[in-house]
Amino acid sequence: MSKTRVLQHGRLLPVLEQRLAERYDLHSLWQEADPEAFLAAHGGEFTALVTSARFGADAAMIADLPNLKVISSFGVGLETLDLDAARVRGIPVGYTPDVLNDCVADTAFVLVMDVARRISASDRFVRRGEWLKGPFPLATKVSGKKLGILGMGRIGRVIARRASGFDMEVRYHNRRPLTDTEHGYEPTLRSLAEWADFLVIASAGGPETRGLVSREILDALGPDGYLVNISRGSVVDEKALLEALQDKRIAGAGLDVFEDEPNVPPAFFELDNVVLLPHLASNTNETRAAMASRVEENLAAALAGQAMVSAAA
Ligand code: 8YV
């Protein structure tokens, strides 16, 4: 029997690419000089599409794959994937939630600690030989402070659990209050920002959350407040954030995500009150292996006509 023809959109973890290539007739769209022309000529050959939160699949791509039976995506974010276009064709979409909650929540706390205690800044201080000239300036205590979470979803809840180990009070803002959490609900993002010492963004990306963290929200957080973003750069007005950091209208920010990755506006590099990470929250061997396995499981299940382990649509 001939192998299922699977289209790969964007690079994936090498070990996942290798395992998919062993099992399926895998074709790398990202290696095509003219992907659109390739899709127009060969789109009908593929029954499966493997992609990632980074590359997704838009309506045009899904339309170019008329025999598509399954989409399996690496990552929890779905804002780059046109779920409606898949849904109307009855194409199941798999993704990889939950397995990355721990590492993403850990990264949120890395950023909370780093930006408040100025860990990366102090490392630069030691390397520059400045310790020889005098002590590092005092920083801000984290334990016992107030942590506001925008987006109390799967990852937000794990962040809240981590916060309890730091004796922090947690409140959150979602569109609606939850019935199964003991944490306080703030009816608006603005009131959450006013209350919080640390505002952690853990919401989904996409049009519904675009620009939610505006200049007004940053000013509500105020000169003693810190912003941490492990969700999507699009949730924050990046220009407003840059200005707030430059003018010290907020105390600092820890960012794992940006509006136009991997392009980080160079003006951020000049600032000592911001910690910049290259979107690494889920990048551990353990979590990436679990995500890769989930991509394979979802794909195999759907091709066998069974329910996926994690279905988004
Ligand atoms: C990945 C992520 O780095 O899961 C997500 O949505 O943002 C990260 O875990 C990225 O999606 C891989 O494409």
UniProtKB/TrEMBL annotation:
<feature type="domain" description="D-isomer specific 2-hydroxyacid dehydrogenase catalytic">
    <location>
        <begin position="29"/>
        <end position="310"/>
    </location>
</feature>
<feature type="domain" description="D-isomer specific 2-hydroxyacid dehydrogenase NAD-binding">
    <location>
        <begin position="110"/>
        <end position="281"/>
    </location>
</feature>
<dbReference type="InterPro" id="IPR050223">
    <property type="entry name" value="D-isomer_2-hydroxyacid_DH"/>
</dbReference>
<dbReference type="InterPro" id="IPR006140">
    <property type="entry name" value="D-isomer_DH_NAD-bd"/>
</dbReference>
<comment type="similarity">
    <text>Belongs to the D-isomer specific 2-hydroxyacid dehydrogenase family.</text>
</comment>
<dbReference type="InterPro" id="IPR029752">
    <property type="entry name" value="D-isomer_DH_CS1"/>
</dbReference>
<dbReference type="Pfam" id="PF02826">
    <property type="entry name" value="2-Hacid_dh_C"/>
</dbReference>
<dbReference type="Pfam" id="PF00389">
    <property type="entry name" value="2-Hacid_dh"/>
</dbReference>
<protein>
    <submittedName>
        <fullName>2-hydroxyacid dehydrogenase</fullName>
    </submittedName>
</protein>
<dbReference type="InterPro" id="IPR006139">
    <property type="entry name" value="D-isomer_2_OHA_DH_cat_dom"/>
</dbReference>
<keyword id="KW-0560">Oxidoreductase</keyword>
<dbReference type="InterPro" id="IPR036291">
    <property type="entry name" value="NAD(P)-bd_dom_sf"/>
</dbReference>
<keyword id="KW-0520">NAD</keyword>
